[in-house]
């Protein structure tokens, strides 16, 4: 009986020791988990990225760490987007400030001259209106750029005949072409459907056509052709204008870029930048082929969906 009692006591002591050991190990695990969690959170709060490391699926900390790492990646990516948007906003504000200086200065100048020279007020009013129109066009263009780049405007594509979109863009440049006696020739299948955003694609086409008419001499020609290829539908706009030197072709799509020899003509250098932005947002692209004095060809590629 005494032996049985002794064995029972020893068993209870062993069980108690085992439980104490388990509690100690559990505390160690909790302390370790807390320490690791605190370290990971501090890394994330400092804006740093959690590094990837292997873990066992049965290890609780390993699984929690992996989830934290995914959260860290999302947090880092979001911070990068916010930083890029801030830089973009700074650039836009800087561009607006720079581009509006000249027309605003001209407006002030003409107002002063009107006060001093009463006889020529009608002439100054014409010049004043031109500067106001330029300023209005500039601000509207900047709004379009900012809304496109920040994602405020979403591209909404529909499968529609590209001829309709092209026709509206051509109609918008016809008055200017007629003044210069520039002929426009078009080859496009009436029912050729392409998935595109009608409004914004029309804006891109208009900007390229407007440039073609603007920089083509009187009695020149503009040729437009649309061709469905295996992967893309290509819209080619070819003019007989002044052309673009090879070393400048990479810069013509930059914001506010203008050819050195045409600074006295109308325009602010936003059209081609907007055109490429719009086409790129539809998973397309634009190519330029040109030679100085021999005209330019802009090729717009929009992806086929079937």
Explain this structure to me?
With 306 residues, the chain is of the alpha+beta class. The chain folds into three domains: 1-39; 78-149, Helix Hairpins (Orthogonal Bundle), CATH 1.10.287; 159-303, Histidine kinase-like ATPase, C-terminal domain (Heat Shock Protein 90), CATH 3.30.565.10. It has helices at 2-45, 60-116, 121-149, 162-179, 198-214, 271-280, and strands spanning 158-161, 183-187, 193-196, 221-228, 232-239, 285-290, 296-303. The strands form two sheets. Strands 2-4-5-7-6 form a five-stranded mixed sheet, covered by helices on one side. α1 (2-45) packs parallel to α2, α2 runs antiparallel to α3 (121-149) and α4 (162-179) runs parallel beside α5 (198-214). The longest helix has 57 residues, at 60-116.
Short structural description:
The protein is α+β, with helices and mostly antiparallel strands and 306 residues long. It has helices at 2-45, 60-116, 121-149, 162-179, 198-214, 271-280, and strands at residues 158-161, 183-187, 193-196, 221-228, 232-239, 285-290, 296-303.
Defining key terms:
Helix Hairpins, 57% helix, Heat Shock Protein 90, alpha+beta, 3 domains, elongated, 6 helices, 306 residues
Cα distance spanning the termini: 90 Å
Instruction: Assess the beta-strand content as a share of residues.
Output: 5-15%
Largest sheet: 5 strands, mixed
What share of the residues lie within helices? Answer: 55-70%
Predict the CATH topology of the largest domain: Heat Shock Protein 90
Average pLDDT metric: 81
Radius of gyration: 33 Å
In one word, what is the shape? elongated
Name the CATH homologous superfamily of the largest domain.
Histidine kinase-like ATPase, C-terminal domain
Please provide the count of β strands.
7
């Amino acid at each position: 009986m005494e032996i049985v009692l002794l064995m029972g006591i020893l068993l209870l002591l062993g069980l108690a020791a085992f439980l104490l050991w388990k509690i100690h190990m559990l505390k160690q695990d909790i302390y370790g988990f807390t320490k690791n969690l605190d370290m990971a959170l501090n890394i994330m709060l400092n804006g740093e990225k959690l590094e990837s490391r292997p873990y066992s699926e049965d290890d609780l900390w390993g699984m929690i760490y992996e989830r934290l790492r995914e959260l860290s990646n999302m947090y880092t990516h979001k911070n990068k987007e916010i930083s890029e948007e801030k830089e973009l906003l700074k650039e836009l504000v800087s561009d607006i400030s720079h581009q509006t200086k000249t027309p605003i200065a001209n407006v002030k100048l003409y107002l002063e001259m009107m006060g001093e020279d009463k006889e020529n007020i009608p002439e100054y009013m014409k010049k004043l209106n031109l500067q106001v129109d330029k300023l209005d066009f500039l601000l509207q263009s900047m709004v379009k750029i900012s809304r496109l780049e920040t994602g405020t405007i979403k591209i909404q594509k529909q499968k529609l005949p590209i001829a309709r979109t092209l026709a509206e863009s051509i109609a918008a440049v016809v008055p200017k072409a007629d003044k210069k006696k520039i002929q426009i020739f078009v080859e496009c299948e009436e029912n050729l459907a392409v998935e595109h955003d009608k409004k914004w694609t029309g804006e891109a086409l208009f900007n390229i056509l407007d440039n073609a008419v603007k920089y083509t001499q009187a009695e020149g020609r503009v040729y437009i052709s649309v061709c469905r290829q295996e992967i893309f539908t290509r819209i080619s706009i070819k003019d007989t204008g002044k052309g673009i030197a090879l070393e400048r072709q990479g810069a013509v799509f930059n914001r506010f870029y203008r050819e050195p020899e045409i600074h006295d003509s109308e325009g602010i250098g936003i059209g081609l930048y907007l055109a490429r932005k719009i086409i790129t947002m539809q998973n397309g692209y634009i190519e330029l082929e040109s030679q100085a004095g021999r005209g330019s060809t802009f090729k717009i590629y929009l992806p086929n969906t079937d």
